[in-house]
Each structure stands twice: as C-alpha cells, then as structure tokens.
Amino acid sequence: MIYFIIFMAVIYFLIVVPYKHYQARRGVKAFGEPGPVKTCPACLSEDLPAAASKCLHCATEQPSA
Fold first, then answer.
1. Of the residues 13, 19, 37, 64, which has the fewest C-beta atoms closer than 10 A?
2. Are residues 48 and 37 in contact, defined by beta-carbon separation less than 8 angstroms?
3. Which domain of life does this protein belong to (predicted)?
4. Chain centroid offset of residue 59 CA
C-alpha cells in the first residue's frame, strides 16, 4: 500500500503538475469547468460552444447572440 501511494505521488508530481503549469502558460485552464454551450436549432445537438458560428455536426449557420 505504501509503494502505491509513493508511486501515485511520483506520477502526480512528474506528470500532472507540469502539465497544469504548461497549460496555464498557454492560457488554457487544465481540468477546469467547460465553457458555456448552446443547442443547434437544426439537429438539436447540445454540445456547441456559445461562440460557434457553425454547428459541428450538421454545419448549419448558427444565429448570433
């Protein structure tokens, strides 16, 4: 059990912490809340970003807010 805890701590400090730091430098929030989404009126997909101008699934133009 102790070896597992040590192994997980090593993985966390060698992979997760540098990855979060790298993403923060790029301006992307790693492991954060997703941005606001909207629903496409044509195909009713609910995973479009709020600033999208076209639907990812059916390629219809989206009305601007």
1. 64
2. yes
3. Bacteria
4. 21
Task: Tell me, yes or no, whether 38 and 25 share the same domain.
Answer: no
Same domain (yes/no): 27, 7: yes
31: left (phi over 0), alpha (psi -120 to 50) or beta: left
Q: Give 16's DSSP letter.
A: I
Q: pTM score > 0.70 for this model?
A: no
The reply to whether 24 and 43 lie within a common domain is: no
What phi, psi does 19 have (nearest 5°)? -65, -45
Number of structural domains the chain divides into: 2
Cα→Cα distances 54→24, 34, 40, 45, Å = 28, 19, 9, 12
**29-44 tens-digit pLDDT:** 767 777 788 888 889 8
